[in-house]
Automatic annotation (TrEMBL):
Protein name listed in UniProt: Holliday junction branch migration complex subunit RuvA
One GO cellular component term noted in the UniProt record for this chain: Holliday junction helicase complex
Transmembrane segments: none
Species this chain originates from: Jannaschia seosinensis
Gene, per the UniProt record: ruvA
BP GO terms, sorted: DNA recombination; DNA repair
Segments of this protein annotated with the region Disordered: 146-168
Amino acid sequence: MIGRLTGRLDFRGPDHVLLDVNGVGYVVFCSDRTLAALPPVKSPVALWTELLVREDLLQLFGFLTVQEREWHRLLTSVQGIGARGSLAILGALGAEGVARAIALGDAAAVRAAPGVGPKIAQRVVNELQGKAPAMMLMEADDPLIDAPAAPTAHPAPTEKAAPVRTSSAQSEALSALANLGYAPTDAARAVAEAAGDADDTGGLIRAALRRLAPGE
């Protein structure tokens, strides 16, 4: 199993990159969002990876964070969602957006991904909603990019800083609500709903509590 690759970005294609690792070139397929966030060609970069093994096929898929890779694994466990479908969903929503959509039961958000129909989107929400709390509790990590972000041609790396902080606040808020005795699925939905009201832990907890106990 190849779980992570660190090397030099030699080529960026429409749906993949070529990563040179000690003279060996690995073709790694990525979502549109991940491709946009990568530094310029010839820069050092690292990606978490998932290896797809079939009788007639070996393909590597790359992700900037562990959360993104774990959501990929969960998404591809849903019947009708292959690796490319998972990348389409992650490219449209991002790992944090997927967590929010599934916690809220928002099949319409999942359906916004190219090639994902209403039945498949609803199936994703139905099958993964119970797993959203555990995913939201995963510790936020920084993207595995070792080079400075590209200046104006690739604005996405700058935009990723805030979601990382927000993800950490959401996981801390979810943990706090679980300690208060709220059911994981209820807490996850409340935190996801409150994400637009605050991006710090204290604010998220207060906003989520207003949704969980509106009369208090």
